[in-house]
Amino acid sequence: MATRTPETLLNLDRLSLNNEFVVKTPLTQRRYTPYTKSNQRTQVLTKTPLPNFHQKRRAKTQEAKLSGRQQRSHELSNDKTEDISTRIVNKTWRVYRVSPLYSFKTDAKSLKLYEKRLNSFLAVETCRAAEVQSRVKKKALFTKLEGHTDGDYGVEIKIMTSEGKENAAKEELVAVLCCGGNVNDENLNILNGDLTSLPVCLIKSSVLLKDSFLQWLENQFGCRACLLLFSPTDLAWLASLCAGIGEPTTSVELTYSVPAVIPGLDTIYFKMDAKDARRIWNLVHDPKQPCFTNEEAVRILKSMETHFYHHFKVHLNQMQLTTVGTSVAYIGQEGRIKILQEPYVCYILQQLSQLANF
Amino acid sequence: MPGEVLDEVLSRYQELPTRSHATILVVSIKGIGMEDFVEAMLQMDTSYSTQIRTTTSLPLPKQTDSSEPRPRIDYIVFIVDLSNQQSFKMIEEAVKLVDVDYFLGRCCFILSKAKQEHLHSVDLNEVTDLVEAYDSTMFCGDLTNEEERMNLVEKVLHHAEIACGFCNDVNSLLLSTTRQSFTFEEIMTT
After folding, report:
1. Angstrom distance (rounded) from CA A323 to CA A243
2. CB contact under 8 A, A35 and B111
3. Could you give the ipTM of this predicted complex?
4. What span is annotated as the signal peptide, if there is one (chain B) (predicted)?
5. Minimum CA–CA partner of B160 in chain A
6. Contact, A259 vs B31, CB < 8 A?
7. Could you give all domains of chain B from N- to C-terminal order, each with its CATH number?
8. pLDDT tens across A179-233, in order?
9. Which of A 199-228 lie inside 8 A of B, CB atoms?
10. Residue A256 · residue A235 · CB < 8 Å
11. What is the pTM of this model?
12. A45 touching chain B per CB within 8 A
């Protein structure tokens, strides 16, 4: 008993940090165990700027869409760049977070080079994987995508397979590496010339091909890619943010998973008309403020949960939020996302970049 | 009614101390692994006898049976499951009803599921702010994981042993006064 020194008793909890799923909320600074505060870290009130164009849009959506499309087709004929929104909208993606890429360039020449490298890599992989399917040929295609502002840009990577001499090529993998706006200025400053930050990678593909693609990406650019999982805090925040933007067309849907302690009940599906959700949002949010704060987000979700308790006597705050659906986007806890309204693609991507960035 | 509120506050000086016997109060909502934690704690081999009382909220109910009075509570364990908002809310309410004497090294906060960040429903900053405001010890670990649970049990029992005065040369006040400087050093070195 006497041999014990205070140091051993005071041994603070130290957990290993080899965390498989690293997710950061936009609301908090990422902190490591033992989670004690240092002097440098100061609590900042978290604010998210709202998309400033949405009032304008609502008035003349049709016009804007038309002119936008014309402009885009014009761009298409001129240059090889394409709009990022049209590529991403209305598709279900898996979201990956990617650490900064080393010596990655987006000019046409380098993209051609990457194409070649990926092709040869895939050729080797397919040979190794199955000799039976050796006739299957895989071809990669890189395209540069552009968003509304200079900050939003991305690179689309497609892998097509063509069997034998058939001309009809099938899209096997579509990946979009993108960066949303000037989200994290301090982080960009840290990066020196050789590194490019494209923190979000949206992938749509089979598991096998995705694995080999990510392997190639990691080896080629010295980065690390892992699935971006959304914690219930993130989802709640995204849900209340999305409830307030875009056209309120469909309903706001929240799926909660019930803890295993309660037998016979797995999920609670909570659906609410988007117009009602918007009404709550307008009550909570001050229209003069250009930013949406964390407190407002908490209040909106809490009011919905209180409403649910009033009718069903179930405390939703004891449940885990797993999926969130709004008229702008569907987001699942396991990193699945579908953006439904084109004007907001870049805005959602900005939020994702913020989530993926440290 | 200040008098009524004072009655509800859990104080160390309401009862007499017991000899070679520690009473630990665990404050936690149901369904976050508290039962397993208590079970593991009881199975540990200690030089003193332990009694563990659990509650799902504070204040404790009024004692009705006067023949068997409630023993003095030597140590309090607050359990927060980070994937459950309700557990945090309950703890937030509960700490207000605890005497300040307990926060001089006689209580600890356990943050369950701190490592599984993708399950967090409670903002970690809020929790750490609370723990910091009460200037108490914080342990992180998953109560549903066997190994981590045993680890936590050992740590908690160690602290409880000191809080009861069973350890020579160390007392809880020393523990709580030196804690800050040690954590600060840790940050400086890492």
Report:
1. 14
2. yes
3. 0.76
4. none
5. A9
6. yes
7. 21-57+70-178 (3.40.50.300)
8. 766 545 555 545 667 777 888 899 998 888 888 889 999 998 888 888 888 888 8
9. none
10. no
11. 0.76
12. no
